Amino acid sequence: MGATKKVAASVKKKEKDRGAQMFELRLYVAGQTPKSLAALANLKKICHQHLEGRYRLHVIDLVKTPQLAHGDQILAIPTLVRNLPVPIRKIIGDLSDVERVLVGLNLVENGSSK
Amino acid sequence: MATSKRRGSGGSRVLPQLEKARTGIAGFDEITRGGVPKGRPTIICGGPGCGKTMFAVEFLVRGATQFGEPGVLMTFEETAAEMTKNVASLGFDLNDLSARKKLMIDYVRIEPAEIEETGTYDLEGLFIRLQYAVDSIGAKRVVLDTLEAVFSGFSNQGLLRAEIRRLFRWLKERGLTTIVTAERGEGTLTRFGLEEYVSDCVIFLDHRVNEQVSTRRMRVIKYRGSSHGADEYPFLIDEQGFSVLPSTSLGLNHPVSSQRVSSGVKELDDMLEGKGYYRGSSILVSGTAGSGKSSLGAHLAEQACKEGKRCLHIAFEESPQQTVRNMRSVGINLEPYVKKGLLRLEAWRPTQSGLEMHLLRIHKLVERYDPAIVIIDPVTNLMVGNRHEIHAMLMRLLDFLKTRQITAFFTSLTLGGQALERTEVQISSLIDTWLLVRDVELNGERNRCIYILKSRGMAHSNQVREFVMTRNGIRLLPVYVGAGTVLTGSARFSQEAREKAEESVRLHEANEKSKALEAKRKALEARIAALRAEFAEEEDSVAQTTKREEERELAVARDIAKMASLRGSKLPRNDQGA
């Protein structure tokens, strides 16, 4: 699909715009479920590719700290929350759809995924 | 609550019944014979603004305060602060309950705009939050208000349904008595068909407007493994919370009393075997406007209060102050009893709500106040809507009052020109004692007559009495019955005066006659006396004559003898010898 090329171009442009902006990410999981593990692996890959050196990632296991679910209004597991830059964005699922993750993190224009 | 308790445990008889959790909501536990299924989910569905959330919150609050069961409120639409504020009007202090660890509110915000879905996920976060909330206060009850909101936040319907199914199973496994509220859908009970997951108990709330008057109703659509009332029950949400009007009809097995309650009017008591009404009976007074019905009610109230009984007076036309003032004008002073708390005057506009709401309100007042007598003035104001409904509703009310042995006194307004006995068809057959106050128009004035149309269980008077309101209260006077007519008021008065005059004339005449006779008798007696005197005189003279004659004869004899002695020689011896 031609979309991949477009996305790549768009990502480059974005990265230039944003410069050294820090990304604060939290990944909420519940134990070591396949979905959680997949999400973590996918996220690490994406961060490595697109946010190298300018992200902080916290992995929060709600089985251990259930009280933290309320703060970020977590319902679905796994959920990736982008606290910074504002506005807050949430991406749910195992993050297997890279394109959508990038849209969700606002690393590409919303419209470009269409 | 005592009744529901009895039903909850004692009603099970031999058959093992589904264990139930009492909601503490007035009336609801009676309809469902003990509450919602314990440890299982129940769906409350209905349109917007029908009271689903109120019901759910009250279920939690009562559970926490009355039954020692802490609860978790998971709200999807309102924040904890909003929820707290909303239910504060019902007298529930959620902050206090939260502080005491009896309640935990978790607001679940779902913002579809900030959520991006990538790949598979589940709602484990919801489970974790729920588990955390339940564990932190040891909750036994859970409310999910409104769970369906999750459908707006996530696009994978198949997954959501699987998760909801899992959620209900999860709740059941943990034995959490749960209430799930759900919006009503087009042609279905809930918009997202939640009822297919919750098969134990489904309750439907409805808020409808009929003739500009809104009524809330509740129906238990399904209650697996339990009998329940199947009707639509009206309910009310007010400052005491939720209350449902139960009891379609309790059947006719209420206790009866042979105790009597004085009507407060001596003459009326006289007409009712000299003792008054039966305690726990229903009394209807009907009559046209201004015929003194309310005063009869006030008399009853005053009498009851004098005896130290509590009385509830509900007026639909006058404010309490007005009632007090107006009754004072006929010599009934209710104020001290109001102050003492024996008499409770309540007044509201009949147009304020539908019939059922009125009755529910009366129910609540009676429950709270526990009076011996309830006066409703006038009951006709409740009669809006269809006849059938009115009949059923009044029957409910009467049944309710009768089971509590409360004497019910209703007044009923009949319009001029209507046949008095026909207008109250809806209610008359339910009434034990029916008094009729009737106008009699005669000689340019209106007078009131009262009679007892019926009074079950007593040999009541069949007389028509004149009904007079004086400064000292109501008096019943015997009417003038004579010369083929019944007269009242001034007609009676003038008739009586006329009779009195005639009587006095007759009396006078008789007097005169007897005087004349007396005179005649005296005259005759005088004559008799005169004749007697004459006779005595004659007799006297005769006696004197006789005496004189005798004397004369004696004298003659002496003379003869003397003469003979004078001639003497011939008879010397005689003379000597003499």
Concise overview:
Chain A has 114 residues and is an alpha+beta fold. Chain A is 35% helix and 21% strand. In chain B, β11 and β12 form a beta hairpin.
Strand content of chain B: 15-25%
Number of helices of chain A: 3
The CATH architecture category of the largest domain in chain B equals 3-Layer(aba) Sandwich
Per the CATH scheme, the topology name of chain A is Glutaredoxin
- Summarize the main sheet of chain A: 4 strands, mixed
| CATH architecture designation of chain A | 3-Layer(aba) Sandwich
Q: Between the first and last Cα atoms of chain A, what is the distance in angstroms?
A: 12 Å
Low-confidence stretches of chain B: 1-14
Helix fraction bin of chain A: 25-40%
**Full CATH superfamily name of the largest domain in chain B:** P-loop containing nucleotide triphosphate hydrolases
Q: Measured on Cα atoms, how large is the radius of gyration of chain B?
A: 48 Å
Structural class of chain A comes to alpha+beta
Average pLDDT reading of chain A: 78
Number of helices of chain B: 18
> What's the CATH C level of the largest domain in chain B?
Alpha Beta
Largest interface (C-beta under 8 Å): A-B, 35 and 25 residues
Beta content of chain A comes to: 15-25%
pLDDT < 50 runs, ≥5 residues of chain A: none
What can you see in these coordinates?
The complex is a heterodimer of chains A (114) and B (578). With 114 residues, chain A is α+β, with helices and mostly antiparallel strands. Chain A has a single domain, classed as Glutaredoxin (3-Layer(aba) Sandwich), CATH 3.40.30.10. Chain A has three helices and four strands. In chain A, strands 2-1-3-4 form a four-stranded mixed sheet, with helices on one face. In chain A, helix 2 (34-50) links the parallel strand 1 (23-29) and strand 2. Chain A is globular, with a radius of gyration of 14 Å. The model of chain A has no long low-confidence stretch (mean pLDDT 78). Chain B has 578 residues and is an alpha/beta fold. Chain B folds into three domains: 2-244, P-loop containing nucleotide triphosphate hydrolases (Rossmann fold); 260-478, P-loop containing nucleotide triphosphate hydrolases (Rossmann fold, 3-Layer(aba) Sandwich), CATH 3.40.50; 493-568. In chain B, strands 5-4-7-8-3-9-10-11-12 form a nine-stranded mixed sheet, with helices on both faces. In chain B, strands 17-16-18-19-15-20-21-22-23 form a nine-stranded mixed sheet, with helices on both faces. In chain B, helix 13 runs parallel beside helix 14. The interface between A and B is medium-sized, with 35 and 25 residues. Strand 4 of chain A pairs parallel with strand 6 of chain B, so a sheet runs across the interface.
